[in-house]
Hints:
Layout: H1 7-22, H2 31-37, H3 51-58, H4 62-69, H5 80-91, H6 97-105, H7 107-120, H8 128-131, E1 142-146, E2 152-163, E3 166-173, E4 176-183, H9 198-205, E5 209-211, E6 216-221, E7 228-229, E8 234-240, E9 243-248, E10 253-258, E11 265-266, E12 271-277
Helix pairs in contact: 6-7
InterPro entries: Aldolase_TIM, Biotin_BS, Biotin_lipoyl, Carboxylase_cons_dom, PCB-like, Single_hybrid_motif
Domain Lipoyl-binding: 198-276
Protein name: Biotin/lipoyl-binding protein
Amino acid sequence: NWWSVTPGSQILWTTAVDNVLSGERYANPSGDLKNLLLERYGSFPFYRPKDEIYKKVFGSDWKKILEKEGGLQKIEPVDLEQEKKTLEEKLGREVTTEELVLYLQHPTDAVAFFKFEEKFGHTYVLPPQIWFRRGGFELGEKISFIDYKGKSHIIEVGPTHYTDGKKATYFVIDFHPVVLVSEEKEKKEVSAAPALTKEEIEALAQVGDIRSPFNGSVQKIEVKIGDEVKSGDVIVIIEAMKMQTPLKSEVEGKVERIFVKEGDQIKTGDRLVFIKKK
Length: 278
């Protein structure tokens, strides 16, 4: 496995963020959090978390689950050449070793990142304070920064014009005028549907209607239409904040519809897969 940070710290801070966003501690436990508690990444070096956390994450039968599923995770060898070939097919070009490593860590986000850089250029040219600026930039605002080579730059934000479905934004970069032209996104009048509650999502799963428990992206779909599945089979793996969560079937039946594809961005309550119960 490749890790950009230690698994423990990654899982802890993303769980903390989810606790704040959901307003309830351990309301949406990720697959990685469950693996951590099951000690699949190794035993806890000093002490085990409190029993109440296990109960919140796994339910009242947490002791049986811990006894049955706990222990080091077996990791199958990865065919690096095949993974490299897969990435090259997705991008339509040869890839570097660094790109392959990033793809192995974050299969969905890495592909989107590479395509973004192909369209707009390397992201490291601009400092983080520009990327993380909330609310955008005002007309006439000047942005000063020093790039990764130590060279100073000034960007002045100009007006934006819309013509024939195109959006043209004007800049003055280091005293040279530059025009960025892009496709204008079509505005659609869509009434916001009320978000499903955790209880409603769980109830739908009991009848084979698998919904997303939180915002994220579809990393992998483990089934295809027509497949016979049993209760407990992994149907979809979704990813949020670099954390993977497998969604399992609560019913035995046949996969009748798949509403998403790998790489899709999803929101809480979105339909993923429908399984017709036997």
